[in-house]
Structures are given as structure tokens and as C-alpha cells.
Amino acid sequence: MMKNWLVIGSIGMALMACMDSSSSAVSTDMIHIPATASGNVPHASDLPGIVFQDTLVDLGSMVEGAQKGVSFTFTNTGKAPLVLADVSTSCGCAVARDWPKHPIGAGKSGQIHVNFDSRDRQGTNEKTIFVVANTIPSVTKLTLLVDVVGPTTP
Fold it and tell me: Which residues are CB-neighbours of 110 under 8 A, at least 6 positions away?
């Protein structure tokens, strides 16, 4: 009998919680990526743009266990300030160490610094760096290539 009251009480509280009509609803106004479902997309020429000097960097060959840093240089080709929301990588062996955390003005440039650790990475490696920004498209992919030579590499 006690178990039934517990179940009925739990269901009642769950239903009341679902009927809560407070003003904490999520709306598209909270999302600041230009291309949204709202249909109010500004003209592309008024938005920031990101163009990289190189989207692919080939580090060549390196000895297993060594580390190497590389910088990807970019320019804001748009009219509005460019904001890099996140920079992530496809693997823990490549780590985005530093990138601008402040808005980049129109026509200004910046760099994203990535470090590659070749430990336990023998052979050909292709790593992707994902740059999320307030641009269209919102994600730009960069590629890092490196051939790691170790004691057992033929």
C-alpha cells in the first residue's frame, strides 16, 4: 500500500514539473551563431569571415617521442568582429595550446598554436583541428600531417 502511494506521488510531482510555465524557456535569441532556424540570417557580407593562410600543415618526418608545435595563421575577412568559440582536435596527441580569446577586428589576423606529441604514434598521422567561430559555416577544419618514425618502423 505504501509503495502505491509512493508511485502515485512521484507521478503527480513529475506531471506538475512538466506543467511549469516559467520564463526560463530556451529560445533562438540565446544562440549567437549567424545561421539559425529563426530565418533572421544577416547578409553574409556583414558577418565575420575566417580565412587561413594554410588549412593543411605537413610536419614531414619526426622521431617517435618528439613534440612539435605549429601555428595556423588566419585573417578576419568580414566586417564584424570574429570570435573563436572553441578550438578542439580529433586526438589527444594534437592539442590546441593557444588561440585568441578576444574578438578579432575586421581585417585583423591571429594565430592558433597546436602541439603534436608523437609518443606511441608511429606511422602516418593525419589529425584534424576543429575551429568553431561566429562565421558561416561555423566550423572550419584544419589538418595536420606527420610521419612518425620509431625503432620498429620499416
Answer: 73, 74, 76, 84, 99, 100, 104
| Architecture of the CATH domain 46-149 | Sandwich (2.60)
- Quote the cell numbers at residue 96: 590546441
Retrieve residue 35's grid coordinates: 545561421
DSSP assignment of 11-37: HHHHHHHHT---S----GGG--SSS-T
Domain boundaries, the chain: 46-149
- pLDDT tens digits, residue range 52-61? 999 999 999 9
**Amino acid identity of 7?**
V
Give yes or no for a contact between 73 and 111, defined as CB atoms under 8 angstroms apart. yes
For β-strands 50-52 and 139-149, DSSP reports them as: unpaired
Question: What are the cell numbers at 29?
Answer: 535569441
Q: What is the pLDDT of residues 4-34, one digit of tens each?
A: 666 566 565 555 555 544 444 433 333 355 5
Q: Is 92 helix (H, G, I), strand (E, B) or coil?
A: coil
**Cell numbers that stand for 131 in this block:** 575551429
The model's pTM is 0.71
